[in-house]
Each structure stands twice: as structure tokens, then as C-alpha cells.
Design brief:
The structure holds 2 protein chains of 2 kinds. By secondary structure, chain A is α+β, with helices and mostly antiparallel strands. Chain A is built from 14 helices and 41 strands. The chains are: A alpha+beta, B alpha+beta.
Chain lengths: ~750, ~230
């Protein structure tokens, strides 16, 4: 795909810090030490440092408060005055700086004043440019090996960050680091710094339309964990990008960098087709051209789990056999909590992790664990432990000591020879001597000459996994070095991260029944109370199956008989601690379906829709004219069953955040919390000769709670199979998700 | 008088115990002759994980004969591997009307830790079906249960999902839910939320294409329409 680009370029020297920020003032104040700045412009991106000073539009020094030359920062800012044919816009920002030794301060101050006046103009111009032409740039070093590249985002556009250590490299050969898009105003991209003393970064903004996989390239052979880099520029705001492997959706990103991490060890070896599609705010989809990749992994873990409660099956196939294998389980801190090992003669490894640590203690749930399976050629003995003498003899270690961590897993400290510090210094000196005088000016000062120490040693911490690898590396002398997921060789590995699931969580259920007055009360209150006791038992029993806080609110059935009772039920429905998300009511429903629980003869009290809406903060506004429908929910419920006359015809569904007009597919399509509402669209009868409605209700709860995996529609079906006449005077209305399950 | 009372009590006890014995026998017969063979056949027909239906593997069994004069019963059978069967019988014929396994096809992850969300997201890495191929898989199961496409409106497919996440946008899961309404179902009835409409719902897994759940409702046993000869 042809690409036109707007380029934002900057470079910096390692171990230093550079900023090019929204305004010069911000830029200056971002340093806590005085600085000097030089600015120049060029029309040739990537060539700025090669232009003679005379061709640069300006070089300038910063205002007095920023001039003291403890630091030198130079901007080279370029921008074409006119758009070239074809509409491409090119803009280059290059940034580098160095820490200047204090003794050179005077010299620098003498060098720079020539450009002060012109610089002031350019600074103003630059400030203006930055203010009007995002993206704004900033670069900071957050560790010795990484930098953060930040810029102000044009929402919905994509960016590509590339790097090189040699500015003479053609742009087409720069290494892509990350492709990103974001709805955030400021985008931050982390990049690893190469070993070279200088790195250049380039940010490209595609201006033509399309979605493309940048990396890996078509027909490439890949192994282990790969990064799938994507660029998308589709005219309207990007909502997200889907990744498909062999037509199956396997990933989705809706913010940050468009870089999918794909562990190819979880798929079969051979050819696979990969493509992406970008969804835009107009519900449009743009799909990239597919690429074909050849997955080649000697060790594969197909269908690796990512969730578990009690144990994780580990079924790994290896092309390396006979082989020794070891499983290492690490917690979120990276601490290895469990190790076990074995051997395979045919390449099939079938084992499992029981969720315990090496001491047999059950590890916490609601936490992630990374399981790594390492397979190596046989031939190094049975023990994962290696003695100090054997390791020393094979790997040059001078001593090895071991301890066990709190999970009973051994950890090692190895003393090994270290490079002579003078040798490293001489390597840096050799690079320094190759620099031009101008480059030396901005090169970080050389460190003091270290002492010559050919017997230097260093202490290295080794995990059980490191030791297993070291043991087999040394035992299999002459074989390919351990390389996770690499193709070929005598070793390989695969890993997965699993979440130990706690009991499924949702809210408590509010059980409420109306206490009938008079003769009806004498006859039915006991029967209904029995129904509710049964339901409460079913709730407790279901919680035993799925866990979580799914008990009955306050462990009791709330009665609605007096005015004060209504307030108690409302408080229960509005409760956030405990969190109540289900509601079952049995009793009277008003003729218009907008009130429940009123006392006989006083139809204006009870719990009314008009009270519930503000209480729960749930509103539904239907589509009117050009105004689309709106759903506002502050406390939507998972499940509501109002078991009374006419309860399905009013606005209770809307009051509970389950509007009638919103199809189940709307929740599906928008990935919203599942929910369902049930009520009767008519009058249900209750008499001595006809208790089918009560029987129906119990049958429904029996099915739905009796099998927490059963959908609500299935429970309705089964209740009607048992008690078909319950629907003689009314039909049951079910809004929302028909497949809502109790364990949801 | 005393003798009459004794005789009456004896007869009552006899009726009670005989009744219980007959009831027990009826239950036992339905369990042995209907439920187990139907469940075994269902497992085989749908290519589910084979399981021994021995007593040790049965978690729960409940048979409820109709008490309103109709012949037949409904029954549930839960196995320890998570399979759950629901049977419907009209006295002569019986079939599985509902089946589901233990697969959790929805996650509410509002406020969940990032690692848990990542784990749920990772489920999709194992998805091997597209919506098109998922529909094909579901249609295979649909026909395996004896349903005929001509008797139903076009299938409606939704990919299962999880809700929540940092941006509250949730995400998709490698499971698919496919619904068929019978041809005579009116859209107005559906819009009214009427839950007693003839319906078939099938869930399939994108991970291994297996049948997660099957639900049939408000149709005659063994056929889609009363007028159908047989399935």
C-alpha cells in the first residue's frame, strides 16, 4: 500500500533527556536546570544534522533564565512552506541534547550568541507551529533501556513509530516499533533503546485510507510470541480494531497502540491467515489485506486455558523428544510459586497444575498465574538442582548457593566472572573517537577511567527456571541455546497466563412478598411464605454451586403490608452494600402495571414506578423525531420478576433499567451487562381450586436456581410444561436476555 | 366397629404402600427406559464428551409426573461432569428439551481486576470459528435434533460477550448463541416480550465447536409442528 506521511522526527542521546513540548515556555520549564537551545529548520527530513549551519534558518539560544550552559539542547525543526505535489506533508522535528560539563560552559556560551536574535523569532514561530499543528512531542527516558515518546493526538488517526541507530539508513529500512491510535489527547508509546549510543525515532501519520498489517510481513515464518503491528486510517474516528486468525476473531483493541501480542505456540504449526478490521464511529468496517504466516514452534500448547478454578490441564506437544520438561508457575510478582518436572519419550506432555504451591498450600484465587512449560532434549540427569561444583565446572561459576522462597521453590545466587570494567570503557572510547567534532560536542561526557580488574566477579540471582535452563544448556553442550518458542533446536517453551477465578460474583436478591389481609391472608399467607422459604433455600443452594455474594438480602423475606414496609423494600432495592441486583416480588399489581404491593382498597400506595425511577436513577427515553432513544441507568438490575397481575404492562422494566423496547441484541452488541425482566401481561388467578400460578412460580425458580447454568427462557418453558394452565389468564412477558443464567 | 376401623386402616395402608411402590416403579422405569437411553443417545448424536451414566456420575435426578390429569412428566438429570438434561414426556414419547454443560458463556467484569479481564479476553485466542462458521456448526446441531429449517424463521446469531472493563466496553467471547423462532411466530408477539413462543436456542463453542446448550420450547414432542408427521 502506498503511504504518504507526515513525519515527526527527533533523536536523542542515551542516558539523557529531551523534550519538545507544546510551547517553548513549557519546554524550558520542563527542565529543572538551566539549558541552552539551538533551533534550526530544514526541508529535508533525516538530513538536518548533515546540513551546514549556514543553510539552517536559524539557531538560537534560549532566554537568559535558561541559558546557563550546564545542558545543551538543540532543536532542529523543519517544515515545508508549501504542500508538495500529491498533497504529502512533511514535517521533521529533531531533538537531541547532551549534558555539558560545567567547565565548557563559557565556550558554549560563546558559540551560541551568534544566533540569539534569529533564534528568538524562530522560537516564537516554533511556538506558534506547535500550538497550531499537532502532534506535539515529548520524549523522556523512563529507564536505562526504554524511553517514552509522547505526542498530542489527532483523535482517531493512527501513528507509526520507527527507529534506527543510523540516520543514514533509508527510511524504508527503519525498524517499526509500534503502531498506535487512541482517543486520548496525549499518546504515550514506550520504546526499547538499542544498544547503540544514539537512537533516532520517527513518527509517521498515514494520510491515505486503509487498514494494514505492518508486521510481520506476508509469508514470514514466525515462532513464539509475535507482535502484530497494524496501521489504520479510515477517515472517521476509529472505534477499535479486530484481529482475525483463520477467520476467527482472536483479539480486539480499542485504545492505545494497535499492536496485538500473539503467542503462536498456542496454534498448530503450518500456514495461518491473519487479517485485521477496523471499526469506525459510523459503524463502518474496513478490512486489511490478509497475510499468510508460517507458524513453526517445536513446542506447542494448543487450547491453553486462561481461566480456572481448581486445576489447569497442561497438554503440550513437543517435536523434541526424548526430552525433559519442567513446569514453572509464577505469580503476578514474577515469583515462581510452583515447579514440577518430568520427561517424555514421545513428545506428548499431559499433566496438570493443581493450583497449589511447592509446599502444597492452596494459592489465592482472584489472581493471575503464568505457567511456563520448558522442554529440552534429554541428557542432563534427573535433578533440577545443580551443585555448585558441577555448575562451576560447566559454566564458569565460582560459587552457587540456594535458598527456598516462601512457596518452597529454590532460588539461587551464582557468583560468576564479570567483564573487566576497563574493557567496557575502552569500547565506549573507541566509539567516541569515531565521532565528528560536532557530534562530540553533544555526546555525553565520558565516565572516569575505571581501574583494570581482570578478576572482577558479579553475583547473579537465578530462578528455578533459570537453573533448569542453565543445567540443560551446559549438559547439552553444543546444542542451540535456549530460546523460548524458537523454531528448531533442542529446546523450546510455551506459556500461558491463567486467572484463578473466585466464585462468580453478582448481587444479592431482594425477596419480597405481600402479606394479604382478611380471609385471603388466612388461606394463602402461609402457602406463599412456604414458596418464599423454598426460593430462599434454592438461592442458598445455588450459591453453593457458583459462590459469590448471591445470597438473599438480609437473609430474609421482606413483607409488604404497611406503609413503612414500602420504604424498607425501596432501601433494599437501592442498596449498594450489599449490592442488590435481583428482585422477586409476589403480590398485587396495579391495573396499569405501574405499582406493586398496594394494600387492598388503597391502590394509590405501594411501590410505584414514579418512585423507583428517581430512586434507582434508571430512565428510558424513546426515539422521538430525530432524537434517538436514550437509556440512562444508574442502578440497573440483573433480573427482576414481578409476580403479580399486570406487572408486565407498565413501566417497571424501564424503572429497573431493562427497557421493553431495548432488544436483547442491543445488550449483546454493546457488550452491556446482561439483564432480564419478567412480569405478567394480564390477571393471574389464585383460589383454593387454582394455585397453579404459585406452582408455576415455584417450578420456575426450581429450574432456574436448581441449575445455575440454565437460561431464564428454558426455566419459563419448563415451568409451563409442568403448569400450563398458569398462563390461562395471562401470558408471561420476558424482556432482555432470554439466556440470562443465575450464575451470570 | 373396631374391626371395620382396622380393616379400613389396613386397606388404606395397603393402598398407600402399593401406590408408593407403583410410583417408585413408574419413576424407576422412566429413569431406566427413557432418561438414560435418551441422554446417552443425545450425547452420542451431538458428539459430546462420552460419559458413564452410572450411579456414581449422577449428581441429581428428579422426575415430576403431571398432577393435572395429563399423562407424562418432566424430568431433570444432572451429571457430575456438569451436563444437565431436561426431559419432556407426554406419556408415550419423550425427548431432551434442554441440555447444557458447565461452560460459562458470559462474564460480568464491571470492577474486575485487569488480570481477570485479560484472562477472559484471552479466551478468544482459542476461538476457531467466525460468525459464519459458527452458524454452520449450530445449524448442524439444529438438524441433529430433528428440526427443519423450513419450519423456522432465519436463525439469529449473537456472539457471547463479557461486560465491563476499564472503558466499560466489554468484549467478545468464543461462544455463539443462535435462536430460531418457529415460522408462525409474529414479530409483534416478540416485541411484546411474550415468552411462550415456539423457539429453539442453541449455544456452540468457538473453541472446539461443541454444543454448549440446547433449548426447545412450546413445540410438540418430537416435531416442530403438530401437523408434522415426525422428525
Amino acid at each position: 500500500m502506498a503511504r504518504t506521511v507526515k513525519t515527526v522526527r527527533f533523536f536523542y542521546f542515551k542516558s539523557q533527556l529531551a523534550f519538545l513540548s507544546q510551547s517553548a515556555k513549557t519546554f524550558v520549564s520542563s527542565f529543572n536546570k538551566p539549558i541552552c537551545v539551538a533551533l534550526a529548520a530544514t526541508q529535508t527530513p533525516g538530513k538536518a544534522d548533515q546540513l551546514p549551519l549556514s543553510r539552517r534558518n536559524s539557531i538560537q539560544r534560549m532566554p537568559r533564565h535558561a541559558q546557563v550552559g550546564a545542558h545543551l539542547v538543540r532543536f532542529v525543526v523543519g517544515r515545508l512552506g508549501r504542500l508538495p505535489p500529491g498533497g504529502a506533508r512533511v514535517c521533521a522535528f529533531q531533538v537531541f541534547w547532551r549534558k555539558q560539563p560545567a567547565k565548557k560552559k563559557t565556550k558554549i556560551m560563546k558559540t551560541i550568541p551568534k544566533t540569539i536574535m534569529a533564534g528568538a523569532l524562530v522560537l516564537a514561530l516554533t511556538t506558534n507551529i506547535f500550538a497550531q499543528s499537532p502532534p506535539y512531542l515529548a520524549i523522556s527516558q523512563d529507564s536505562t533501556t526504554t524511553v517514552q515518546i509522547n505526542w498530542t493526538n489527532q483523535v482517531g488517526t493512527t501513528y507509526r513509530v520507527l527507529s534506527t541507530s543510523d540516520l543514514t539508513t533509508p527510511l524504508s529500512l527503519w525498524t517499526p516499533l509500534e503502531d498506535a491510535f487512541s482517543e486520548d489527547v496525549t499518546v504515550s508509546v514506550g520504546a526499547s533503546i538499542a544498544v547503540t549510543p544514539i537512537d533516532f525515532f520517527n513518527v509517521e501519520i498515514p494520510t491515505n485510507s486503509g487498514v494494514q498489517i505492518f508486521s510481520p510481513t506476508n509469508e514470514e515464518t514466525v515462532s513464539g510470541v509475535i507482535t502484530v503491528g497494524v496501521g489504520a486510517q479510515i477517515g472517521t474516528q476509529i472505534q477499535g480494531v479486530n484481529l482475525y486468525l483463520d477467520d476467527a476473531l482472536i483479539g480486539f483493541i480499542d485504545s492505545g497502540g494497535i499492536a496485538f501480542s500473539l503467542d503462536t505456540t498456542h496454534f498448530t504449526n503450518g500456514l495461518h491467515t491473519l487479517y485485521v478490521s477496523a471499526n469506525d464511529s459510523g459503524n463502518g468496517t474496513t478490512t486489511s489485506d490478509p497475510i499468510t504466516l508460517d507458524f513453526e514452534n517445536p513446542v506447542r500448547w494448543l487450547d491453553a486455558d486462561s481461566l480456572f478454578q481448581s486445576f489447569v490441564p497442561i497438554d503440550v506437544e513437543s517435536d523434541i523428544f526424548p526430552a525433559d520438561w519442567a513446569v514453572f508457575v509464577a505469580d503476578t510478582n514474577g515469583t515462581i510459586v510452583r515447579t514440577f518436572s518430568g520427561s517424555t519419550s514421545d513428545g506428548n506432555i499431559n499433566t496438570n497444575w493443581d493450583g497449589n504451591d511447592n509446599d502444597g498450600a492452596t494459592l489465592p484465587d482472584e489472581s493471575a498465574y503464568t505457567i511456563t512449560v520448558v522442554v529440552t532434549s534429554s541428557g542432563s540427569g534427573d535433578s533440577m538442582m545443580m551443585t555448585a561444583s558441577s555448575l562451576a565446572s560447566t559454566s564458569g561459576a565460582t560459587s552457587v548457593s540456594s535458598t527456598t522462597n516462601p512457596h518452597g521453590v529454590p532460588e539461587y545466587t551464582v557468583q560468576k566472572p564479570a567483564p573487566n570494567p576497563l574493557t567496557a570503557y575502552l569500547e565506549i572510547l573507541a566509539i567516541y573517537n569515531q565521532l565528528t567534532p560536532q557530534e562530540k560536542l553533544i555526546y555525553p561526557p565520558l565516565p572516569p577511567v575505571p581501574a583494570n580488574n581482570p578478576y572482577a566477579t558479579t553475583l547473579v540471582k537465578m530462578s528455578a527456571q533459570d537453573m533448569f535452563l542453565a543445567q540443560h544448556q551446559t549438559a547439552n553442550t553444543g546444542t542451540t541455546p535456549m530460546d523460548a518458542g524458537s523454531g528448531g533446536g533442542s529446546s523450546g517453551s510455551t506459556s500461558t497466563t491463567v486467572w484463578r477465578e473466585a466464585a462468580w460474583n453478582s448481587g444479592e436478591i431482594v425477596l419480597t412478598r405481600q402479606n394479604l389481609n382478611g380471609t385471603a391472608g388466612l388461606v394463602y399467607n402461609g402457602v406463599v411464605a412456604n414458596l418464599f422459604d423454598n426460593i430462599r433455600t434454592l438461592v442458598t443452594s445455588a450459591q453453593g454451586d457458583i459462590g459469590g455474594d448471591r445470597e438473599t438480602y438480609e437473609g430474609s423475606v421482606l413483607l409488604m403490608q404497611h406503609n413503612g414496609d414500602f420504604g424498607q423494600v425501596k432501601d433494599a432495592l437501592a442498596s449498594s452494600s450489599p449490592n442488590t441486583r435481583e428482585f422477586y416480588f409476589w403480590g398485587h399489581g396495579a391495573i396499569d402495571g405501574n405499582a406493586i404491593g398496594y394494600r387492598e382498597g388503597t391502590p394509590n400506595d405501594g411501590i410505584k414506578v414514579s418512585d423507583l425511577k428517581p430512586l434507582l436513577g434508571n430512565y428510558y427515553l424513546p426515539q422521538v423525531g430525530n432524537s434517538s432513544q436514550k437509556i440512562i441507568t444508574h442502578k440497573p438490575f440483573d433480573f427482576v420478576f414481578l409476580d403479580g397481575c399486570m406487572t408486565g404492562v407498565g413501566s417497571f422494566p424501564e424503572a429497573f433499567g431493562i427497557p421493553k423496547a431495548v432488544a436483547s441484541s442491543t445488550y449483546d452488541d454493546n457488550h452491556k451487562h446482561k439483564r432480564a425482566f419478567m412480569g405478567w401481561n394480564g390477571t393471574i388467578s389464585l383460589s383454593i381450586l387454582d394455585t397453579e400460578s404459585l406452582n408455576w412460580s415455584l417450578a420456575f425458580w426450581n429450574t432456574w436456581l436448581g441449575n445455575p447454568n440454565s437460561g431464564v427462557e428454558a426455566a419459563v418453558i419448563q415451568a409451563f410444561n409442568q403448569h400450563p394452565s398458569a398462563g390461562d389468564g395471562a401470558t408471561i412477558a420476558l424482556y432482555g436476555s432470554k439466556l440470562l443464567k443465575w450464575n451470570d | 366397629m373396631k374391626a371395620n376401623v382396622t380393616l379400613f386402616c389396613s386397606i388404606a395402608l395397603l393402598i398407600f404402600f402399593v401406590g408408593r411402590a407403583v410410583g417408585k416403579e413408574k419413576t424407576e422405569i422412566f429413569f431406566q427406559e427413557k432418561m438414560i437411553p435418551l441422554a446417552q443417545e443425545f450425547v452420542k448424536r451431538n458428539g459430546l464428551q462420552p460419559i458413564d451414566f452410572g450411579t456414581n456420575n449422577i449428581k441429581k435426578c428428579q422426575i415430576q409426573f403431571f398432577t393435572d390429569g395429563r399423562p407424562g412428566c418432566t424430568a431433570t438429570l444432572a451429571l457430575k461432569n456438569g451436563y444437565w438434561f431436561y426431559f419432556n414426556s407426554d406419556g408415550q414419547n419423550a425427548e431432551v428439551w434442554d441440555f447444557n454443560d458447565y461452560t460459562k458463556t458470559y462474564y460480568a467484569l464491571e470492577g474486575a481486576p485487569k488480570e481477570k479481564i485479560d484472562a477472559v479476553k484471552a479466551l478468544n485466542l482459542r476461538n476457531k470459528l467466525s460468525k459464519t462458521s459458527a452458524l454452520e456448526v449450530a445449524e448442524k446441531f439444529f438438524k441433529l435434533q430433528g428440526h427443519k429449517e423450513k419450519n423456522f424463521h432465519p436463525a439469529e446469531l449473537h456472539q457471547s460477550y463479557w461486560s465491563g472493563g476499564g472503558d466499560n466496553r466489554g468484549g467478545e467471547l468464543p461462544y455463539y448463541e443462535i435462536t430460531w423462532y418457529r415460522k408462525d411466530v409474529k414479530k409483534t408477539d416478540r416485541d411484546a416480550g411474550i415468552a411462550t413462543l415456539p423457539i429453539v436456542i442453541i449455544e456452540v463453542s468457538g473453541i472446539d465447536s461443541h454444543l454448549i446448550s440446547y433449548t426447545k420450547g412450546f413445540m410438540p414432542i418430537g416435531k416442530d409442528f403438530e401437523t408434522d408427521k415426525s422428525k
